């Protein structure tokens, strides 16, 4: 099953790392990721820019509102994510524990199964053009 592993942390800590600290953390994370990548089970991995770079579209009374920043004030924010294929939730938990052990910036990892939708495949299945 495909899982998303969402990484939450205090962004003030993560974005305050020096280039050397950042490189060290990334090296340790890559070491944890490498076995999954070699097995062809690691999908896209992404790091989000700080919440100060965020834009939120919120449903308004008459029309959607466009706001600067995240939709809520919180100490921990979503900083990035992994997508990976695991045979079980236990494997996803074990991978997340390894990430947690080497990543001083992430306070928690949220694991969720998810489905990928490809709009062009849906159109083709419905008989539409791509």
From TrEMBL:
**Top-level taxonomic group:** Bacteria
Which Gene3D superfamilies does this UniProt record tie to the protein? Dimeric alpha+beta barrel
Ranges for the YCII-related domain? 1-114
Q: Which InterPro entries match?
A: Dimeric_a/b-barrel, YCII
Q: Which family does it belong to?
A: Belongs to the YciI family.
For this entry, the protein name equals YCII-related domain-containing protein
- Species name for this entry? Aliirhizobium cellulosilyticum
């Amino acid at each position: 099953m495909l899982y998303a592993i969402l990484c939450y942390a205090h962004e003030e800590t993560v974005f305050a790392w020096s280039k050397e600290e950042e490189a060290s953390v990334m090296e340790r994370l890559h070491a944890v990721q490498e076995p999954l990548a070699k097995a062809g089970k690691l999908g896209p991995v992404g790091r989000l820019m700080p919440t100060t770079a965020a834009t939120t579209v919120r449903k308004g009374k008459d029309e959607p509102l466009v706001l600067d920043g995240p939709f809520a004030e919180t100490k921990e924010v979503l900083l990035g994510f992994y997508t990976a294929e695991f045979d079980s939730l236990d494997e996803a938990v074990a991978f997340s524990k390894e990430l947690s052990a080497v990543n001083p910036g992430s306070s928690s990892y949220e694991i969720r199964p998810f489905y990928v939708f490809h709009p062009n495949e849906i159109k083709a299945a419905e008989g539409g053009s791509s």
